[in-house]
Predict the 3D structure of the following.
Amino acid sequence: MSNTVGPMSAAMLLNNALIFGAALLLVIVVSLIASRQSGRLLRLALRLVRAPDHEALAASLANRVSRAIVVFTTVVAIALICAGVSLTMYEIDCAPRLWAWTEASLLRDPMAAVWLVLSVLGVLVAAYVLYRFIKVVVHYLVAGLRRNPAFSQHDAQLATLLERLLVTLRWGIALAAVSLCVALAPPPELVVQALGTVTIVALGVLIARTMIVIAHLAVDVVFHFARGRESHRTLRYVGRLEHLAGITKRTLDYFFFVGAATWIFDQINPGGRLSEFGLIGIRIIALVYAGRVLIEVFELFVRELLLADPEKRSEAENQQRLTLVPVASSILRYAIYFCMTVMAMQELGVDTSPILAGAGLLGLAVGLGAQAFVGDVVSGFFILFEGLFLVGDRVRVGDVVGNVEEIGVRVLKIRDEAGVLHCIPNGEVRSIANHARLYVNALVEFRLPYALDVPGVLAGLKAHLLEYRPRCPDILDDPEFVVQDLQDTGVLIRCVVRVKPGRDDATCELLRAELLTALLAAGVAPQACHVVALQGGTPR
């Protein structure tokens, strides 16, 4: 490739530079004149309408108009520079095209050119008046929403909505005015296509951002209304699904942005691959959100079905239902996830028939390769449906003693007295000692010297515990004292008291304290006495 620029390329480069340089200079000069004269015109207009403090108001409005002119000039300058560079890179000479358009539109009929300029000015003035009118209407509508009690707690969102609406209206009316001005004197087709593309992209993005704010506000208002009407039978369930508000907002964000991108691609290239992918993405987003809502609704339904009105059932039945809730929820969740995956693959054009047909073979292969996992699952179902123990029961499984926190399909979770959570696979549960069925016995052992009146002391202790029993609701029956063994250090006594399930350890602590109090009050101190017999001065 030659590094020299040919005569035609040099001429094209010079023509494009002159044309876009002159256009850029014209834009800057017009913006400077408009910025300087805006203050005088505003001051004159406010003086004519006799506005109060018109000097300060004119200065404030002039500053705002100047800032708007600077922003507009910057955008137009960047667009001119990008257009000049792009046309030059594609070796498009603008001079003959511009001259042909000028001859066809302006030089052929000077009066038509004057009428064109007046029409363009009329369109711009009409666009400005229309924007001011719609702005007043939007302010009035938003102010009405703020006075509504349903929107009283969403003032920040209403302010954001007002800002987004005004930005969308401002750019929408400006782009419409520019398109109408272009239609009055059609420029080259390339300019029309570029302007149409910019209009479509800008409107798509602006409308999507505005609709997101409206959707977020609507979601918050709906859930706030449902929260305030919890006494209503239907709205009560909506209030319980309030945590879905965040998921709903994120889903709406994805939906509007993907929808806007799909619309933009379809307008630029109707029926193209990108627009098809966008429609598939919208359907998948809707599918995922519907599955998430179904999961939450089914879990709420399961809880309402199994856990409603607990006062009408016994404690054991409530515990059994509380144990079955997470299992049923897990089964429903996995089933919905599987259906969602299959339907999403169908949307992507994947044939799911072989997948469904091979599910049985896959399950068999998994079963043969994961026998321990299958054993855990089968043992979990037997534990659940046989009701060997329930959530909240105090059990002993192997060397672990604690309260059952969760009975899963595969894993049993027990928290011991030290607060340590033990996760035991269901297949390893061989023997279970349940401390939470009907009653348990609290056992306290102590020794008494042989020299005491053991029956009398035991009678006094029993009378003391009978007097103490009304103050301990965990005790279910009168205490019993049994002579457990005759040891060399004294008489081993065992106190047996029937208590409520799971309260044996706590009751044992109370019984030890009461027995010690009673023994000290009777002048008896439990002690261990060791006797060593000596014969001939040597210990034996």
About this structure: The first strand starts at residue 394 and ends at 397. The CA atoms of residues 315 and 321 lie 10 Å apart. The domain at 445-521 is CATH 3.30.70.100 (Alpha-Beta Plaits).
